Amino acid sequence: MNEYRKTPFDESLFSGYLDGELTQAEEQKVRLHLEDDPEARALVAELRAIRQAARSTRLAAPADEEWREAPRSGASRFLRRSGWLLAIGWAVAVLGFALWGAATSPESWWERALVAGAVGGPLLLFSSVLLDRLKVMKTDRYGRVRR
After folding, report:
1. What is the pLDDT of residues 114-123, one digit of tens each?
2. Domain segments of the chain: what residues?
3. Strand boundaries in 21-130, DSSP class E
């Protein structure tokens, strides 16, 4: 390798070279660099081997019954819904307690505004996402698509 090279080589061009996505000038620049640098040639050979290994890997598709994540039994559905209700109830109670504490606290107005912003901001964002998801759920063409 030429140790006195003044400009470093952009190694991100190697993956573009392997994929055939470089312009003619960039490809020529990479070829010239590979002719001069044995470490770069070794790196490109390693990247080529990794690319071939990734392309030749076959992934096993899961069985049809593994695709759905929804609970299958009535007891499972009941427990999941009960868990969600408990979690939502707990979150509402904690939120209410935090807001009540901030409202009745003798702290200054700006400290109460900080607490309101810290609680209200994420709550408004969550509410926005929830409303959007509920609206889309009614018209989602892919909601019932199964493998």
Report:
1. 877 888 888 8
2. 13-56, 74-139
3. none
